[in-house]
Amino acid sequence: MSMELDVFVGNTTVLDQDVYQLWLDGHTVSDAVRIRMEAGALQECEANAEVLHSDTTDQFRTFQMCERLLQSPSKVANQLLFQIPPHRQTMLIERYYEFDSVFAREVLGKKLSKGTKKDLDDISSKTGIALKSCRRQFDNFKRVFKVVEELKGPLVENIQRHFLLSDVLARDYAAIVFFANSRFEAGKRKLQYLSFQDFAFCAGQLISYWTVGAVDNMMEDLDVDLEKDFLHDLKDLKVLVNDKDMLDQHKSLVCAQLRGKIKVFSEMEANFKNLSRALVNIASKLTHTKDFRDLFIDLVEKLIEPCRSDKWTIGDLRLFLKHYSSSVHMLEAFRHQVIWDRYMSVIKSCILKMYHD
Amino acid sequence: MPGKLKAKIVAGRHLPVMDRASDLTDAFVEVKFGNTTFKTDVYPKSLNPQWNSEWFKFEVDDEDLQDEPLQITVLDHDTYSANDAIGKVYIDIDPLLCSEAATVISGWLPIYDTIHGIRGEINVLVKVDLFNDLNRFRQSSCGVKFFCTTSIPRCYRAVMVHGFVEELVVNEDPEYQWIDRIRTPRASNEARQRLIFLMSGELQRKIGLKVLEMGGNAVVGYLQCFDLEGESGLVVRAIGTACTLEKISTFPATATHPNNSSPSKDMKDSPQAAPSTLGCRSTHSSPVHSASSRLSQGFSVSVPTLLFAGMKPRHRSSEVPRARQCRPGFGEEAPGVPLSSGPPTPLRAQTFSSFSPSKSYSRQSSSSDTELSLTPKTVGIFLCPSTPALESESSPLPSAHLPCHLRPGMASRSTTPPPLHISQSDTAMLRKSVSFSEELLLAVSGMGSGGSAGKEAGPLKALLRQQTQSALEQREYPFFTLTAFPPGFLLHVGGVVSARSVKLLDRIHNPALGNTRSYKLLDWNSFTADEPETRDAWWEEIRQEIKSHAKALGCHAVVGYSESTSICEEVCILSASGTAAVLSSRFMQDGPLDTEHRLSRQPLCVFSTGSERVEGDMGSSASLGFEEVVSPGCGFCHIPYDELNIPFPAQLTYCYCCRRYKVPDVLFTTIDLPTEANVTGKGCLIQARLCRTKKKAQGEGNATAISSLLPFLEYELHTQLMNKLKLRGMNALFGLRIQISVGETMLLGLASATGVYLTALPSPGGIQIAGKTPSDITYEQHISTMQKKINDTIDKNKELYEINPPEVVEEIIGSPIPEPRQRSRLFRSHSESSDEVSELDLSHGKKDAFVLEIDDTDAVEDIHALLTDSPTPAGFYSCNTEIMPGIQNWTSAIQMFTSVRVFRLNANLTNQGLNKIFSDLCENLLKSLYFKLRSMVPCCLCHLNFTVAIPEDELIQVAVTAVAMSFDKEQPLENGKQSGEKTLIKAITENDEQLQFNLELNAETSSHNPLSSPKGLSEVGSHLSARASSLEKASPLPEGRSRSLRSNRSYSGSSVAVVKMTPLSFIPGAKIIKYLGIINMFFIRETSSLREEGGVSGFLHTFIAEVFAMVRAHVAALGGNAVVSYSMKECVFMENPNKNQAQCLINVSGDAVIFVRESELESTSVQTQSATTHTSNGGEGT
Known about the structure:
The complex is a heterodimer.
Chain A: E1 2-10, H1 17-24, H2 29-38, H3 49-70, H4 74-78, H5 86-97, H6 101-107, H7 114-127, H8 131-149, H9 155-163, H10 167-182, H11 196-209, H12 212-215, H13 228-234, H14 239-242, H15 244-258, H16 265-285, H17 289-293, H18 295-309, H19 314-326, H20 337-354
Helix pairs in contact in A: 2-3, 6-7, 7-8, 8-10, 9-10, 10-11, 11-20, 13-16, 15-16, 15-19, 16-18, 19-20
Chain B: E1 2-13, E2 27-33, E3 36-39, E4 56-61, H1 62-67, E5 69-76, E6 84-92, E7 105-113, E8 117-130, E9 145-146, E10 156-171, H2 185-214, E11 218-228, E12 234-247, H3 252-255, H4 287-297, H5 302-307, E13 314-315, H6 330-333, E14 337-338, H7 348-354, H8 359-362, E15 369-370, H9 408-413, H10 420-431, H11 438-453, H12 457-473, E16 490-504, H13 534-552, E17 557-568, E18 571-583, H14 596-599, H15 614-624, H16 627-630, H17 632-635, E19 653-654, E20 662-663, E21 667-668, E22 679-693, H18 699-727, E23 732-742, E24 746-758, E25 768-771, H19 777-800, H20 834-847, E26 851-854, H21 857-867, E27 876-878, E28 890-904, H22 911-932, E29 939-949, E30 955-967, H23 973-977, H24 983-988, H25 992-1003, H26 1009-1033, E31 1060-1061, E32 1070-1087, H27 1095-1117, E33 1122-1136, E34 1141-1157, H28 1158-1171
Parallel strand pairs in B: 9-11, 13-14, 21-23, 25-26, 27-29, 31-33
Antiparallel strand pairs in B: 1-4, 1-8, 2-3, 2-5, 5-6, 7-8, 10-12, 11-12, 15-16, 16-18, 17-18, 19-20, 22-24, 23-24, 28-30, 29-30, 32-34, 33-34
Helix pairs in contact in B: 4-18, 4-20, 10-11, 19-21, 26-28
């Protein structure tokens, strides 16, 4: 004796958000039933295990049928198979594209290719996220990447329009696409302490100020390639460390501003030249792909670690960076103010974001 | 006469990839109607082609327009090999043929393939230019409106109700033709889909012709079914109620309606008020016992003895050799008098009525039939002196005119010869079934004056009743498929009448076999009469039987009538059931006889559902002095039969509402709860479920086995229903539907109904348990605990359903408070045969005890389990009628759903085991539904429609379609309390404005304000549809490779119009402003990759979702935003897991409508009111 077939179809598709989450998390039906029971679903409506199982199976099947549509969200609104109210459609799509930042952190900067997909098993066991869920998230990254790769216009907007995601989520995807596109090194051990959100923030900064799209948002192709001219111009900043006078002048200006304001003044004073050299060198080398990919590792090694070993507080660092970048304006011999500001504003916020344990 | 059909193919979207190499498709479209085909150009390399074709024009007969669907095929062009079909769209042109329905079909329709399901969508435009057909001999019936709704559709009013229409067409089933062995499953499925499309088109056309012949313009309660008889063919049959409907908005027309100016001014007594009991003394035996008796003997015992005494058996020669009966002894009577010797009659109807109304003598139709119910009664006052003998119901038609019609037996019994003028009028009406002849009016007025001359009310009423009855009786079948009636139409309800017949299927004679035009349909009518009449003759038998049962209950009509079949291999059970009733003649063919309209405050419009007001009626009838109508809340419960000759043992008491007329103790009906009914507390779904094993057998043996099982099955179902009803402390069932399914090794019976406590009926007794061997002490204890449990359950239920009837001082028979001794009696598994049982029953009935006898301790558990269905969870109500009494403030949240379950049984189960499994299956299904819909609480599952089937040996399939409707909890409590008030009416007649505007019109006739509001409505409708289509047009996706997404900013809004679906005839909180036509769709889906599609559940889930999607898309294309009276008629699922295959057939139907939210309505109508005041008449009909 067994139930051969058991279906429930509503004219308006019946969707349970909690079950949806369980499905997204990659649980099996029996797992999901157990979790729901533990959550007290049996108290509702005098249900029994059988009812719960039937409902869960049915919901899972519904989601599976919807999945094809969710993979091209623009179709959800004008497909005819499921009648879903708009706010529910939004919920379905948003949730489907939501991801675990732990997972995203693992994938960050990696090539979204099949080879990486094989690593999903490892990621799954490392993060404790079900493999099924990992696959979905990875496929989402890949899909979004593939679609926006060839679109012109602002990245975030493209993602939002094409995948109908919320602003926040679209920005996260932009970061992932940006990292995957630029192939930033994010997997090194030294970078492990950084969270996805840290990187996402930095990516946002880079996208907003350094990319092609930041200047002209009607460029062909992906606008997240960094602006070549800008990177080239960054080489001119070398004068700040190569010209001894300028370096000294810069140092004295910064010291004058900071004296008494930061606790680590002496360390700063001692290290100023190293720090400044590091910042300017990073800038000048960004044209090389290799160095560019190492941007974050460089920031950590050359700036964050020295400061951290000198026990700078974040406040100290903020003040330092503020005056470090602004005092350049007082250097009369320095002619690349615009480039400098564009560079420093991004670097400053990135460093500050990354400066934690 | 020709019409011009025009079609334009605009675009496609979401097409599947047909060319693996390019991941694209080179699509083109073939548009086919009849034998003409057009093609579009190939739109290369796109999944979203823009054909934007010219208008393809088909010049065709309107007959073809009705029969044929427009067939659109989307194909992928292939240079080197044959073009691949992507899928098809069938478009039913019918809604475009009626001026009041849709004018254009425009929108995105799913492209459907029977193997792959929906594969993209296509945007089409279809129009029809129809020339008026004045040909008298035309074969088409364009313009006749069809409604699935089983009440008068909202926004219409019934000018006249003509009565029953039926038709059936038969054909070979393509699936069983030889060619099927060599063609692909796809080709076979498509042949079948197309055939059924054609057959339903033809069927509808023919029914339409009948309606026109009767003078009607619409069919309400249209019920179409398929019988997949396998080898022996395919039957498509339909029944409905022919009406003349009038749009409510065309208001001024009413004033001049002939009905209104009927000359019978003096006639004070309207026939509707004279339904007293005069009629039919019948020896109809108790519902239960007669069933068993008849079945086992193959003919009814009681009915024939009275009604058909002295009657000469007549047989239609044609059917004798044809009908292979499973009854032994049939042959003896076989060589009957051929009917053809009788005088030819102008109407086919007469031919039929000559058909003797029962198997009792012919022994042809076999087996089971039962009247399930007991019922109300009426007036004792007007009892005719010669009660038993005077058969006023026998049709008083002079035999000279209609020899076939006469029932010799009855005529000879009637002591008073019918007045001559009545027969005149009858003849007249028969001759001219359409509307009123002068002759008739004369007869009427004559009659009227005669009536008023007589001082005595009794005889007059009798006379009038006769008249009403004869008006009904001259019809072939006084049946109505309606389940809801305007107040005042339904006078008395007699109880459920049902008939079943077991038949052996035989190859339907089909002369077109081997003919090249094999798709051309066959209607047996048009062929040589030698053979293929069986299917129709079968139904005739059943209907006659129903008719005679109704008579036995003192009723002249059957309402809530429906027919169904269950087929297994070569055995077919035909079932028909309805509710015997006495109707007011007001809306019948003899409408002009009725004077009441004139006195009514709302001339004629009383009928329109929604606008009717009971008060109006009450007022008028009260002024006429008819008490029966004074208390409409209980009138329908009063027994229609004669108290002294109760057709079955029933306890009669004086009505608890009016205290004047007798009512039965329990009332079973197949109709919806009348709006005016007084109900105490809430109702609930009551189901009786039964499973009976049966030996495997072949042919006649099998049929015999089934026939002998049927009575017991039916009897036990009835017992269960009765027990469960009592257990809930209720006394009436509405919407009763008993379904019997045959399988190879078992029979399934499922009876569903909505139980309520009718205030007018006595409080039901409790249930007393008695043991057979009261020797053992422990056994006694068992029984007493049992008894206690049952009593507790009853108390709990009373609380749950808020049943606390006002205490009444008991005057006559039985007290309202249950005492053990005072229950109607109940048997468990009696196996005595026929005559004895009915004897027994009569005597026991008088003893009047409701005792549950149990044999042993096992049975105790059994009974308890049986009786205690788990109650609905808090916040839920359920019913299988349209709405739940006592709930009024529905919100607009509705959720229609279909749920299907198939359960595999172990072999070798006992009856008990089977019963338990089946019962659990249904209970669990209900539980699952509650759980699924818990977010809608508080809510009521309405119109819960269960369908059971035995698709294979050891498989039970249960399909449920229903709607969940939320309501506001803050229901005015006081309303619920005063059960005496007609709280329900307000709930149903949500069209309050309409009423006001009726009244207004009457108050100040020159006022034009009300006129503009319908205009407003229709404008809103067109706005809606315009908006929907414009949205859709804007939505084609840009090309896949295009990068210009920047311009496509429409992502936020949904471009698909929301289409609501409901099995009910209305949408809460909204007003239906236009009916766009009937939706009747048939789909087949097949797969040979079952596992890949998610197994059987995945396969069926997708298919049902696809069917919903297609229904919605077609409704939206018609400009509609909802389907009402939706139902899934057929869901035949077959699987072969070993071959990884499955096939499913689904048939759905409903009415496409445009509705407007009441809130929107107010604002828009105000606007348009100020804009246009007088020119509104032209606004309609566009």
